[in-house]
Amino acid sequence: MSGLAAWVDFGREDVVNPAMVRQMARRLRHRGPDGEGEWSAPHVAFAVQRLAAVAPAVTAQPAVAPDRAVLMLDGMIYNHEDLRRELRGRGRWCPSGGDAEVALAAYVEWGAEFASRLEGMFAIVVWDPRREELLLVRDRLGVKPLCYAQRGTGLIAGSEPKALLAHPAVDPVVDADGLRELFAHGKLPGTTVFKDIFEVRPGHCVRFGGSGLIQQRYWTLEAVPHQDDLPATVAAVRRLLTEAVSSHRRGDVPVDAMLSGGIDSSALTALAARDDAGLRSYSVNFAGYTENFRPHPTMRATPDAPFAAMVAEHVGTRHTEILVDLAELTDPGLHRAAMAAQDAPSPLGDMDASLLLFFRRLGEQGRRAVLSGETADEVFDGYFWAYDPQHSNSTTFPWVSFERGHDAAAGGLGCSLIDRSLRKGLDFLGYADSHYRDALTEVSHLPGATAQERRAREVTYLALTRWAPTHLDRADRLSMAAGVQLRPPFCDHRLIEYVYNVPAELKRAGGREKGLLREAVGDLLPAPVLQRRKSAYPTIQEAAYGDAVRRRFAEVASDPGAAVAPLLDPAATTAALAAAEAPKGAFAWVERASMEMVLQLDAWLTDYAVVLRV
């Protein structure tokens, strides 16, 4: 795992300054605290910060094939040993090093087409001196981040926007579309909140040479007939998930398991424990949460701790519950760090903060890699809005439809305190709805599919291509901010391609959410876990947390010189300050999301010296 930075310019030969690229990479030291490397030639410079995860003694980066190509890799190529054997069997050059060197040899052999042969989570930057071309590649689901900015005859690239913003040619400008990206909850693939800083889209390559920039897709979700009956489907899912867990546990550092006691993390933990008698599992909890838990009808019916402990005992892991207390969670510095990790403000408040604390604790204990259940809900239709007709049949993204049913999030989660005239002018809702309609045009359907079948496929496609990338990016950024590598086996593209084409009724085998997954791991887990309803990531329910958020909000909202002041709606701010008490209860996180967002916005505008051009 690494932090990548690159700069190529086809103008003057002396315009590219390797020291500047080195400075960009050092903004990413959290992604690679174990070492650094650099390489340069006329027109181009690379720099990398490296986290040792595979064969640390032999994976120095950038990897160089003299006169043929230079490559940097963030992530892991899980099939690198298979590729090495294939290349050697073809009589081709292939070094004895790790996965970065194998990826380099694959590029030398197949050119840009090598991306479709790679399995894993990866962001890759390649310089080809023969073609005088820079190539950027991102994995199929977008697990690992990679962004770029074109400036004149040059291209500046890096793992995160903070690296690009270290370059003098890249300014932290946020225009109207940037604000829409912050608030609409209907992300446009390939964009960031910063003007003219773009992401490489998942499953895509970006090629930049003397003739300009070209985007190419190398992977997409295709509709194909599903021929297997339920028993065969269950067996296939079990096999594919077992293989995915095995591949995601490869490397030269121990790979632990995040364990919430939900079906997703429990399935991964149980499969991993079969091959590792000493497997460590970790969960996060708030002090006093389990004892004082209050359920919510759609978001969370039960606390995690009893179920996590049950799974750990059942499969035999060495389990640790990481407790987060109120004092830690209300630290403004922690929330600022969570914002900086993501290069943008977020309304998720204690969820971001507690997750960052969780990864910090892992890092402090010397843990470097952990399995995560990210994307299982998108693959197996686990979200209630995926099958609730009110939301799944709406004329916008199903999750946006759900948000619009709640006053606190009706205009977009976290934006109820933003100036009403600004919201009306920027049309956050219309922005999301427009992207929704565009996304539907990408979906392929089987001939003769019924309207119900077509809609089920569309909802899954939307979840995998518009909902999952945002959450994968969040998980990567918060984990890598602590130098911990998050590995999501449910993102294995073979598993996704198979389950994507499973009919909705089979995915809900037995009439249960994620029934297919439950059937596939039914022999591995205790019955209460198999029967447990999906629960969202936990949020603190202690009223004192809401009080602390409100106090901080009052300080910022009462300061006319605050950076965020011009964006606030006076009437909504006055009403929030006049409320008898801070939001509390099982759904308080949604009600306080707007206050959390204002605090994050103020820190972001200040720390990043953001220039607003709306």
TrEMBL record:
PANTHER family: ASPARAGINE SYNTHETASE, ASPARAGINE SYNTHETASE (GLUTAMINE-HYDROLYZING)
Limits of the Glutamine amidotransferase type-2 domain: 2-211
Cellular component terms (Gene Ontology): cytosol
Pathway: Amino-acid biosynthesis; L-asparagine biosynthesis; L-asparagine from L-aspartate (L-Gln route): step 1/1
Domain of life assignment: Bacteria
Chain positions recorded as ATP binding sites: V284, S372, G373
Biological process terms in GO annotation: asparagine biosynthetic process
UniProt organism field: Micromonospora sp. CCTCC AA 2012012
Short name of any one Pfam family annotated for the protein: GATase_7
Protein name: asparagine synthase (glutamine-hydrolyzing)
UniProt site (Important for beta-aspartyl-AMP intermediate formation): E374
Cross-referenced InterPro entries: Asn_synth_AEB (IPR006426), Asn_synthase (IPR001962), ASN_synthetase/amidase (IPR051786), AsnB_N (IPR033738), GATase_2_dom (IPR017932), Ntn_hydrolases_N (IPR029055), Rossmann-like_a/b/a_fold (IPR014729)
CDD domains: Asn_synthase_B_C (cd01991), AsnB (cd00712)
Ligase found in the keyword field: yes
Entry EC number(s): 6.3.5.4
